[in-house]
Amino acid sequence: MLNITNDIRQLKQTIETKAHHPYLLKYIQKPFVDENKLTLLWGLFNELDVLNEERDQYIKSTMLVQIALDTHEIVSNTFEGAEEMPEVLKNRQLQVLAGDYYSGLYYQGLASIGNIEMIRVLSSAIKNINDNKIILYQKSVRDIPTLLKTLKAIEASLVYNMAEFYKRPDWMELSGDLLLLNRLVAEKANYLRTGQSVVIDNMKNIILDKDQSEVHPSEKEEQVLMEMDKCLREVKKAVMLSSQNLTKKNEEILQRVSEILKQTKDQANSCVKEG
């Protein structure tokens, strides 16, 4: 376990250093490096015959893409409908520029090793993520399986496309299931804490699309949270099954997956207590 822990810590530090920009960080929050996605990428490349230098560059570039996507999403979620005050406008412009800056770093990294094909792989993932974000935020989903498919595409397309490129269906399946589970747990926790969740909003539209004028609001809320818990149970089972398809060579990753499953269980239990 020491190997994976040290490697991931070093990769995370390298990514944070690469994304560090003193001026931008005066006005926007420090970029977040998703360790679960980083761990999955490390596990995938740990099983591939790829030079360490190239492996690290692929992982760093993929995570910089994720940072760029997250940064641009903050613009939509934070500043939509905000007053056009000079300070607000400046922060929004800097947030957009920061996202563009991180995107440029990803292109620069892959171009430095001359891998145009990998740029295409990640560009395809970016398009898929953005297309599905539009579906999610427009709240146009009409059934739960489609909602889960949409969330999975948003959360896992970067890792999924990498695994698909290297023809590793086991990693395609695990990345989709595990990252979907993380997103659902986070959405439920945020909803119970703040009353806000784009995923819960979509579930409300799906479950409560019929006339329920006679149903008490607390009962409607209970219906939606029960559906969320059902989804969590099903996706957790899927993670346990897909993790069994990994090779014994990747015992470190299997142990990390077990830890993530335990974390999501603890978080879910905490959510129940808070709720």
Can you characterise this structure?
There is one protein chain. The protein has 275 residues and is mainly alpha-helical. The chain contains ten helices and no strands. The mean pLDDT is 85.
For the terminal residues, how far apart are their CA atoms?
Answer: 35 Å
How many E strands?
A: 0
Strand content: under 5%
Whole-number radius of gyration? Answer: 20 Å
Average the pLDDT over all residues and give the rounded result. Answer: 85
Q: Helical content, roughly?
A: over 70%
Number of H- or I-type helical stretches: 10
User: Which structural category do the helix and sheet elements fall into?
Assistant: mainly alpha
Shape assignment: globular
Low-confidence stretches: none
Oligomeric category:
single chain
